Amino acid sequence: MSKADPVVLVIEDEPQMRRFLHAALESHHYRPIQATTAREGVAQVTGRNPDVILLDLGLPDADGIDLTRQIREWSGTPIIVISARGKEHDKIAALDAGADDYLTKPFDVGELMARLRVALRHAAQPADAPPEPVFSTRDLRVDLVRRQVFVRDHEVHLTPTEYKLLTLLIRHAGKVLTHRQLLKEVWGPNAVEHAHYVRVYMTQLRRKLERDATRPEYLQTEPGVGYRLRVE
Amino acid sequence: MTARRPDPQELLARAREEERRAGRGRLKIFFGASPGVGKTYTMLEEARAKQRAGIDVVVGFVETHGRVDTAALLDGLETLPRKTVEYRGVTLSEFDLDAALARKPAMILVDELAHTNVPGSRHARRFQDVEELLAAGINVYTTLNVQHIESLNDVVAQITGVSVRETVPDSIFDQADELEIADLTAEDLLQRLQEGKVYVPEQAARAIDRFFRKGNLIALRELTLRRAAQRVDAQMRGYMREHGIRETWPAGERLLVCVGPNPASTRLIRSGKRLATGFNADWIVMFVEAPGLRISASDREQLASNLQLAQELGAQTVSVGGVNVADEILAYARDHNVTKILVGKPTHARWRDRLLGSLHDQLVRGSGDIDVYVITGEKGELTRTPGPRAESRPVPVSEYWESALLLGLCTALGAAAYRYLSLTDIAMLFVLATGVVAYRYSRGPSLLTAFLAIVLFDFFFVPPRFTFAVSDVSYILTFAVMLSIALLISMLTLRVRAQAEMARARERGTATLYAMTRELAATRGLADLIAVATRHVQDTFSGAAVILLPGLGGGLEVPAQADTALPIDEKERSVAQWVLERGRLAGAGSDTLPAARGLYVPLVTTTGTIGVLGVAPADPKALRDPTVLLLLETFARQIAVALEREIFADRTQREQLEIEAERLRTSLLSSVSHDLRTPLATINGAASSLLEASGTIPEATRRELVRSIIDESQRMNRLIGNLLDMIRLDSGSLQVHKEWQSLEEIVGVALIRLEERLRGRRVTVALPADLPLVPLDEILIEQVFANLLENAARYTPAGTPIEVSAATIDGGVRVDVADRGPGIPRGDEERIFDKFHRGPQESASGGVGLGLTICRGIITAHGGRIWAENRPGGGTLFRFTLPLSGPPPAVPEEA
Q1: For the whole prediction, is pTM greater than 0.80?
Q2: Residue A214: in which H helix or E strand, if any?
Q3: How far does CA B302 lie from the centroid of its chain?
Q4: What pLDDT score was predicted for residue B446?
Q5: Measured between alpha carbons, how far is A33 from A22 in angstroms, rounded to an integer?
Q6: Which of A36, A69, B87, B375 could form a disulfide with A97 if both were Cys (CB 3.0 to 4.6 A apart)?
């Protein structure tokens, strides 16, 4: 463990879970610090200035969504919330309150590390930094200057809305985006209730970009929450 | 003659009486001849004695009227606060019944039994409050003056010339457990009066001289003692009956009192009571509704109050309809072994009897061995109040016109044929016209026609013609005959018409009751029964109705399904609650809680009161009609029987369900503990080997152990997910959040989630490109796909293909998940959806047997259907449908 290793604050009341996270993080070159309550968590965020926060939504002493909102008021540190399956509403609420990503219990270490990497990468980029002129992952290549999209070196023609949707996902590559966030950015604030817009366009995009639309490589569905552009 | 054995009926009645009294409080009445004899004083003295004996005594309501010695006795007794009631701007204090019931002492003192409560109180009268206290098991001490006893009311009025309106039914007095007479000689009382020790209400101050006369007081004292003795006598007779002692007078006298809708009948009823008591006879008060009799609304109210008075005095009351009053009375008397008939003296002129026949004559002639008593009615009261003839139907003007037209025709015909016809023939023409009108139209036109016929006949035809003069006196007879014929025919017609109407009304009553009974018998399910019953009651009594049943908490509830037209607010509910608890009728039109909007009738069955029927007819006065009330009670009985049947059936079914649920719980527990323990054992074993022998295990083995820990924990995760889903389905807390979703996307999610489980299989997904978005809950439907795919993976040999396809069908979409496994054993196509059902080839990685059950629950909650079939060529096909509600939503077009 070196001083340069990123600091991860784990806000979690379950000792077993804390132990597991501590071990996993340490073995992957992160410096874990811990908090067992929301109050302690807030103190750690101000005192230790972590690089990433892992927040369990099921804390006994506070509502995790409120805590997210509270931290967001003065800190831009990426927050990854942890929640159980079936609590999709909580996840969406946390994401809309400013959380960056989520993990569904039980999860494996691979998933955790992928989320952490994405979160750290986005945090490292200043929000107003000009995007890379060309985005590429596996067989997908998008030239953001010429507005051209290639799959296995064949150009694919996208409608303006499809392209807008795709670039939005690219800007947040690897991160989950809720239906609401997508609708607001692409169709405007009046469309946030029309989740089926996204579904229709996502289907069209998949047919154009994916090898098999039912086993998407890039445009991954996060059931009940939103979508994610899978990278690496 | 052998010793008389107790009559089983009497024994039964006796047993019931004792049973009734078992849980009841005891009533003691302090009885006196007049105010000032010291009833309250005696009562308080005795209460203090009881209190000293350690009995929980509470003063509910005692009026000291400022008498110091009485007030002193109140000292040291717990006194309930009074309820203050605002009535017409005056604040009045009343006995607080609810406070008394809540306090529930062993004994309570409630002064002045005959008191009338302030309007708006629960009961109209204090003796009803006392009844309720007794029913609640509280002993009551109360006071009563002789002039307030119902049957003696008019006697006292005769003696003193002061009539009292507040009366107490004799039955209350007779059923009191104890009676104590506060006795004072007339002289002593007068002296106390002079000393100012007797409280006299201000309004009675004028009557005081008349009332407190020595002669009056002596007579009242005698009456008091006699009435008390009579009561003792009745008790002794009860004792004799009970012990089979033969009575010295012929038993089985039965009295029938015939009353009408006039105030004079009250006197007749009181006489009946005295006579019945004197003869120790049962007595019945009867009203015969003859078709010719026109009863106005006010008459009907009078009749209702007469019958109510009779009931309060302990009579049984009956109303029958019939053409001939005397025949009806005699027939009823014969059927019910009546020995004496009481009727009032005739009040009409003698000629009517001569002409139409006399009721009394017919009664006496037809009575045979039954005695007929004729009792005097009071003068002045007998003039019939000319109340509005509300119930006679208005005569259409056209009837008059048509009558006049007919007469005009007669006149014209007569004039045309004057030369050829004799005067008698023309008279016959007019008689015919009169007859026709009397037969067809009502009384008014008939009378007018008869009169006009005479006038026309006289003017146009009787010589000298064209004058009203009559040359021959014999024509007067012709006129008289014409008038009589018109009257007679019209009377007969009216009678027949009324009779038909009455028969129809009775028929209607029977028919509606029959219709309801039949429909109730054919109806299953509590909600439907209630709906049917409510509808019939609403139709029959033309008003709003409601049925209330006790809920789980004991409070009354309107079953949610019932389409109720009678709104039940807190006030109405409390009335209904009272009815449920006491098993007695209350509400509008009755004496108890009359301020309510509806009348509430208990639904009584052999097991007790199971609910309450509330009715609020459009015309609230209808409820005062005893025949309507009787019909309502009959309805209530039928409804109660039907509901009881259903409640029993319901209970049985619920019990069976509970047994079933219990069986399932047991099986769930054993299944779950087994299924959770198996993977746990693996995890535990693998982890402990890793911990203990960390250095010595070869890398390959180590990896394998870790791999098994991960696999097994994932299996446990799936298992717990299924269990949670099942619990949600079972408890009904599963909420379906439908949104327009893409099936392709959902299948994709399921395939990614089951990537590990499906490794090495070819899973083909064939969804048509134009498959519409479907309204569904993506989390739940994804679970359905996951369960179906996992099921296929579990029950088919490794490497066999799985196919997922979908198609648009009429009104929805159909989804197929098919495999090429061994298929389902014949006959098991439905069973596999049962809870805890597992396939025959249970592998080590088996589930709890909940997967398909959950699928069915979720699909059903979506309004779809799921089933399984064997595929031609081998394998299983799981197929489910999801409905499309309306066209898919629009998506903005792109430019």
Answers
A1: no
A2: none
A3: 25
A4: 82
A5: 8
A6: A69
Buried b (16+ CB within 10 A) or exposed e, B177-215: eebbbbbbebeebbeebeeebbebeeeeeeeeeebbbee
A220 CB within 8 Å of a chain B CB? yes
- Residues B485 and A156: their CA atoms lie apart, in Å, by 111
Token representation of residue B112 = 């002045």
3-class SS letters over B792-856 = HHHHCCCCCCEEEEEEEECCEEEEEEEECCCCCCCCCCCHHHCCCCCCCCCCCCCCCCCHHHHHH
Q: How much is the ipTM here?
A: 0.89
Tell me if A202 and B779 make a contact (CB, 8 A cut-off). no
Determine the 3-state secondary structure of A82 from DSSP: strand
Residues contacting residue B491 through CB under 8 Å, at least 6 positions apart: B292
Chain B nearest-CA residue for A214? B748
A214 and B724 in contact by Cβ < 8 A?
A: no
Question: CB–CB of B429/B456 below 8 Å?
Answer: no
Integer Cα distance of B792 and B819 in angstroms: 6
- Alpha carbon of residue A133 to chain centroid: 22
Please report the pLDDT score of residue B120 as a whole number: 77
Q: What pLDDT was estimated at residue B385? A: 35
The residues near B893 (Cβ < 8 Å, ≥ 6 apart) are: none
Instruction: Please give the Cα distance from B642 to B604 (Å, whole number).
Output: 11
Quick one: average pLDDT of A47-61?
A: 89
Torsional sign, CA B500, B503, B505, B511:
negative
Q: Which comes out higher in pLDDT, residue A129 or B738? A: B738
Q: Per-residue pLDDT for A172 more than 70?
A: yes
Q: Which structure tokens are listed for B336?
A: 């019910």
Residue B285 phi/psi, 5-degree rounding, is: -110, 125
Distance CA B239, CA B235 (A): 6
d(CA B4, CA B8) in angstroms, rounded, equals: 12
- Other beta carbons less than 10 A from residue B282's beta carbon: 18
Q: CB contact, 8 Å: A211 with chain B?
A: no
Choose from B738, B740, B745 for mutation: most chain A CBs within 10 A: B745
pLDDT at A141: 93
Place of tokens 């969504």: A65
Q: Please check whether residue B278 is in contact with residue B342, taking contact to mean a CB–CB distance below 8 angstroms.
A: no
For the four alpha carbons of B326, B327, B331 and B337, in that order, the dihedral sign comes to positive
Radius of gyration of chain A (CA): 18
Specify the residue for token string 């789980």: B552
Side-chain-side CA neighbours of residue B457 (13 Å): 26
**Which of A190, A214, A225 to substitute to test the interface with B, most B CBs within 10 Å?**
A214
Structure tokens at A183: 């609708």
Measured in degrees and rounded to the nearest 5, phi and psi for residue B531 equal: -65, -45
Tokens encoding A208: 């154009």
**Which whole-number Å values give the CA distances from B744 to A214, A221, B400, B607, in the listed order?**
6, 11, 85, 61
Query: How high is the pLDDT of residue B568?
Result: 79
Residues of chain A found within 8 Å of residue B782, distances taken between Cβ atoms: 223
What is each CA distance from B603 to A30, A74, B20, B643, in whole angstroms?
76, 68, 19, 9
C-beta atoms surrounding B681 within 10 Å: 11
- Confidence at residue B277, expressed as pLDDT on a 0 to 100 scale: 80
CB B534 within 8 A of CB B547: yes
Are B774 and A196 spatial neighbours (Cβ–Cβ below 8 Å)? no
Q: What is the pLDDT of residue B743?
A: 93
Token pair for residue B238? 């009860």
Which portions of chain B are predicted below pLDDT 50? 1-3, 203, 246-251, 378-392, 843-845
Which residues of A fall within a CB distance of 8 Å from B765?
212, 214
Q: Are the beta carbons of B779 and A86 separated by less than 8 Å?
A: yes
Is the Cα dihedral B347, B351, B354, B357 positive or negative?
Answer: negative
